[in-house]
Amino acid sequence: MSTDTLLRVEKGNAAPEELAAIAAILLARAAAAPADTSAPTIRSQAGWRRLERTPGFRAPHSWQG
Question: What is the pTM assigned to this prediction?
Answer without folding.
Answer: 0.42
